[in-house]
Amino acid sequence: MNKNESIKCTVQQCKHHSGSVDYCTLNAIQVGTHEANPTVPECTDCKSFVLK
Question: Which InterPro entries does the entry mention (predicted)?
Answer without folding.
Answer: DUF1540
